[in-house]
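To whoever picks this up:

The nightly regression suite flagged Transcriptional activator NphR as changed. Nothing in the input moved, so I suspect the structure step. Input below, exactly as stored in the fixture:
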Amino acid sequence: MTTYPSLPLSYDLEEGSKTGLPAKDRLGAFGWRRTINDTYFDLQVSFVQPQSFFGSLNQVGLDQMGVSYYHANTVHYKRELITSPDPEQSVLITFPISGKVSFSQHKRDLISGPGAFFIELSHLPYEFYHNKEASLYVIKIPLSLLTSQVSQIEREFARSLSLESGVGRLLFFQITHIINTINQYELTDIERHVLEQQLLNLLVLHLSSPTEALMSSNTDVQSTHLKRIESYVYRNLHNPDLSPATVAKACHVSVRYLHKLFKGAPYSYSEWVKSMRLKQAHQLLKSQPFLSIYEIAQKVGYGDQSYFSRIYKKHFGYSPKDTIYKQ
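Regenerated output under the current build:
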């Protein structure tokens, strides 16, 4: 029975080396491409020496989340721009156990190693690689699970976040516990859901902690303003006029400062408002299908049904009517 490391700072690289991998668990370049794309996202996978590549990936499913143990030698991944993003967008949260990995997304670059983790957004292009052997834990989680509990989580992409706090170490232990438990026991759906909820609670607690807030580029004052703006916009999605001037005035900040708050995000203020409107429309179409498309468009600030349907389809890849029929 394979077991996985319990501490990021004490992991022995040799334990996960090629000689330590059972032959049945060892994948070559061709199998690795297929496995990576099936487990995570559609990625371009390239190798310096395909003939000598080896890797191993053990993925376990919870309820909505997936957790995996990854070990491989030199490899490079590239995510292209997605023209029709999945409405149920996911993120990857990567925890290096051994070795160092390089990650680049939306003008942010980082090198991450044991004792830290980082977030990868699925709807933006990125590059991810390691030049030597590396072992990782990777969580795949629907973005909606995080955004419902952590304000502006998308601002934290491609930042090196520490695991050195007590909560961080508990989070790492929980990932180890989940993989080992599911590999050793047959769990019911309820038991998997409980494990997922425990992991989600630790993630939310850690990402919301004052330590991470201080490591972020946002000060406490900026975070307070962002929360006020987010709350105001969400409560007023029915209002067609959520222009920077209108919202800045309502939230007692200048227009210039409002735009500054969104400078570090992967979207502008206007793009964010549109995304908020469309996500709310998506939820209403699924939860209140008895409403007409025109009524839902009005509830999220669009008076022109044709325009609403057009931008909705461009954003999600299918029409509002199709959303109702998909249920």
